[in-house]
Amino acid sequence: MSSFSRRAFCISGFAAVSACGFRPVYGPGGGGNRLRGAVRLEEPEGRDAFLFARRTEERLGRGPASARYALSYAISVHAEAIAISPDNVTQRFNLRGRATYALRDTTTGAVVQSGKVENFNGYSASGSTVATQAAERDARERLMTILSDQMIARLLAAAPDLPE
After folding, report:
1. How far, in Å, CA of 129 to CA of 113, rounded?
2. From CA 81, how far away is CA 68, in angstroms rounded?
3. What's the Cα-to-Cα distance from 85 to each of 7, 51, 76, 90, 136, rounded to whole Å?
4. Cα–Cα distance between 123 and 105 in angstroms, integer?
5. Sign of CA dihedral 79, 80, 82, 84
6. DSSP structural state of residue 102
7. Environment class of residue 35 by beta-carbon count within 10 Å: exposed (0-12), middle (13-18) or buried (19+)?
8. What stretch of H or E contains 14?
9. Containing H/E element for 146?
10. How does pLDDT run along the chain (164 residues), one tens digit per residue?
11. What is the pTM of this model?
12. Distance of alpha carbon 139 from alpha carbon 146, whole angstroms
C-alpha cells in the first residue's frame, strides 16, 4: 500500500512540475548547453580568483578566445574571528566571501546577466601555525567552489533567455 502511495505522489509531483513550465537545464529546450564551452573568463588575479575560475571552467568548459560570452568577476574575502578562548586566542575563523559577476555578449558588448553571490566557510585555528595556514587554504578553496557553483546556478537558470 505504501509503495502505491509513493508512486502516486511521484506521478502527481511530476505532473505539477511539468505544468508549471519546469524544464531541465540540460534537457531539450533547457538552454544549459548554450553556455557550455561558450564562456571566456577573464584572467584570474590571485589564488582565490584562480580557484574560482578553475571551478567555473570545470562546470562550463573553457571557452575559446572567440567565445560568444565573456565573464568578468570580482571576488572579496574577509576573515572574522568567531571563537575566542578565555586567554584571548582565536580558535576558529569564518571566511565571508562575495563574488560579483557580469556575463557579456561579445558580439554586442551588452551585459546579458549580472549579479552577486555571497557565502561563508570556516576553519579551525587550534593547531600549529602550519596546520592553521593549511586549514585556511582549504577553507578558501571550498569557499571559491561554493561561490562559483552559486553563480553558475544563476547563469544556467537565465540561460534560456540569453541571445542565441
Report:
1. 42
2. 43
3. 53, 32, 28, 6, 19
4. 38
5. positive
6. E
7. buried
8. helix 2-19
9. helix 129-158
10. 455 566 666 665 555 555 566 667 767 766 778 899 999 999 999 999 999 999 999 999 999 999 999 999 999 999 999 988 888 888 899 999 999 999 999 999 999 999 999 999 999 998 799 999 999 999 999 999 999 999 999 999 999 888 77
11. 0.83
12. 10
CATH class of the domain defined by 31-161: alpha beta
3-state secondary structure of 43: coil
Q: Which single residue is written with the C-alpha cell 561561490?
A: 147
Q: Among 21, 72, 19, which Cα is nearest to 49's?
A: 72
Number of H helices, E strands in the chain: 3, 4
Q: Report the C-alpha gap between 143 and 78 in whole angstroms.
A: 11
Axis crossing angle, helix 47-60 with helix 129-158, rounded to the nearest 10 = 40
Q: How far apart are CA 86 and CA 158, in angstroms?
A: 49
Domain ranges within the chain, ordered by starting residue:
31-161
Dihedral angle computed from the Cα positions of residues 160, 153, 52 and 72, in that order, rounded to the nearest 10 degrees = 40
Over the Cα atoms of the chain, what is R_g?
Answer: 21
Using an 8 Å Cβ cutoff, are 41 and 63 in contact? Answer: yes
Taking the CA of residue 49 as centre, how many other CA atoms within 13 Å lie in the half-sphere pointing to its CB?
14
